[in-house]
Specification:
The structure is a homodimer of 338-residue chains. Chain A is built from nine helices and 14 strands. With 338 residues, the first copy, chain A, is α+β, with helices and mostly antiparallel strands. In chain A, helix 1 crosses helix 4. The relative contact order of chain A is 0.16. The interface between A and B is large, with 81 and 81 residues. Chains A, B: Belongs to the HypE family.
């Protein structure tokens, strides 16, 4: 094959078949994909969770990951957050003509490794190569399918007054890692994206505590935006305590330098977990037993709104003892963060 | 909302929610989507067919359709070709900052109408808006999920000597419609893309003739490339008769003008059906009863290779009585055709 991706690698003809055979099958190999059909036939339970995401991250390679790993982790996590065991992924590549093959190779290899670590099979896919300038390097869509393990599933509208709000670890790592790469900022300790598949931790949690009310990964828009979605869907107040929110010192430093708020920065390997108060300690213990969630902490509580039917909102108890309303993200803080 | 798509419509924050609420929910409305979760929970049979495709067609509006309708039809067809009833679609938008909202509106409306006609629900989605220049206008990924209705499913490796090769209608309409739009060619009779969802015709066929061996839609690479994939996977010769292959006069004319071969042009509303000889007439009758397949014809037969184990290939019996080997598409005839 050429050392750059050529237009005809996406033609559906001979060159496409070579690309699939020599690169995709090598890294994604599984019986369903090997049949080389236009799709896959899968055995699943009667209730499945499905989620889709397109990844456009710029740059495609960043400290702690790349667009390929991110495309697997991001969708695996979305499916896991629905209370399901992720089992299958589809992937759709859009590649700019001329992308170095070695870069495509690294991305595909990294997707394969991420899929194996998460225990999912990439069962079918599609590759489009578009002329130079029609897309910036490479974008990847993944759609995930998983078997529902708890029903009713955790959902954004199930937060109830009295629940505890937990977070699986530090906030803002992914957003600041991407941004500092773009800006050419260097930190004493290299700042890595947290991108990782959380399905093993989620599975352990749901098997032991099936009454988890809400699971959400605070990606675009960060913790503040995701909590606002939950508060609004559930009609509750999410009150979080500033001093309890874990943020790395270098993320804090980078944020104040750049005028950013870590509560609005994207995360790609963290989740919010809202459980009945009685389950809070058990949930934290289960989370901390997973290597990706060692820094799990309780960060707040769910309260009723002042009047029945009043809109939900998010309050931050600040270090100085005051209370501040945390709104949703307004405007776009960081385009192409994921 | 603004009259152009702004970056923050893809931020995951307030503007994203407005876009989903005011545009996507309006045209795609269904209970699962309305829950506004990061994914959907679906009830399906134990065996599902899944297919994914990214659509990058240029231009996004063309005679007979647009990228939105195409994104529904294309994936609905891929799922149907797996021997399944398409039920759910996910969609992932990548939109260039500045796209006129009226264009996005037309595309989303057209997706909604196509989904209703096909009887599928768009249950979850994702929207990314990227800065100007990072993508050309709009690309759409759809992933389709359907319940398998026959098992073993029709598949590319099931063509057997003695089978009949049928086509559901004229070839090359989509490819030539796109290309003539790009080149500014005008025909006396306007040439329309054939893009349409074939699942109703496929469903009727499979319910009455469950032993259909192969179903494939000849999209990128056209009839010749798709038949080569089948011949190769099944280890057979697909012999087709030039004079029996339906091609509109204006497509023939356009192709000779532009130096293209209609057998390699993309179709978006046609399918190849390979059945045992004994089922051929019944299959044609069922196909012709569907308004989208009125021009269904038998175009050839499956033959054994000369020696057992010899590679499969495609032969064209020409109008002059000769035989010509039809290879796979080499190179890229038409980038961004779908």
């Amino acid at each position: 094959m050429s050392d750059k991706v050529l237009l005809d690698y996406g033609s559906g003809g001979k060159a496409s078949q070579r690309l699939i055979g020599e690169l995709f099958l090598k890294h994604f190999d599984n019986p369903e994909l090997r049949r080389m059909n236009d799709g896959a036939v899968l055995s699943v339970g009667g209730r499945v969770a499905v989620s889709t995401d397109t990844f456009t991250v710029d740059p495609p390679f960043f400290p702690g990951g790349d667009i390929g790993a991110l495309a697997v982790h991001g969708t695996v996590n979305d499916v896991a957050m629905m209370g399901a065991t992720p089992r299958y992924l589809t992937c759709g590549f859009i590649i700019e003509e001329g992308l170095p093959m070695v870069e495509l190779g690294r991305i595909v290899e990294s997707m394969g490794a991420a899929a194996r670590a998460a225990g999912v099979d990439i069962v079918t896919g599609d590759t489009k190569v578009v002329p130079k300038g029609a897309v910036d390097k490479i974008f990847i869509n993944t759609t995930g399918i998983g078997d529902v393990i708890v029903d009713p599933a955790p959902a954004g509208d199930r937060a109830a007054p009295g629940d505890a709000i937990l977070i699986s670890g530090t906030l803002g790592d992914h957003g600041l890692a991407i941004l500092s790469t773009r800006q050419g900022l260097a930190f004493e300790t290299p700042l890595l994206s947290d991108c990782a598949s959380l399905n093993h931790a989620i599975g352990a949690l749901l098997r032991q505590l099936p009454d988890v009310h809400v699971l959400r990964d605070p990606t675009r828009g960060g913790l503040a935006t995701t909590l606002n979605e939950i508060a609004s869907a559930s009609g509750v107040i999410c009150e979080i305590v500033e001093d309890d929110i874990p943020v790395r010192a270098e993320v804090k430093g980078g944020c104040s330098l750049l005028g950013l708020d870590p509560l609005y920065l994207a995360n790609e390997g963290k989740f919010i977990c809202i459980v009945p108060e009685a389950d809070a300690e058990a949930a934290l213990a289960i989370m901390r037993a997973d290597p990706l969630c060692g820094g799990a902490r309780r960060i707040g509580s769910v309260l009723p709104t002042d009047k029945p039917g009043a809109p939900g909102r998010v309050l931050l108890r600040t270090g100085l003892g005051g209370k501040r309303l945390l709104g949703m993200l307004e405007g776009e803080q960081l385009p192409r963060i994921c």
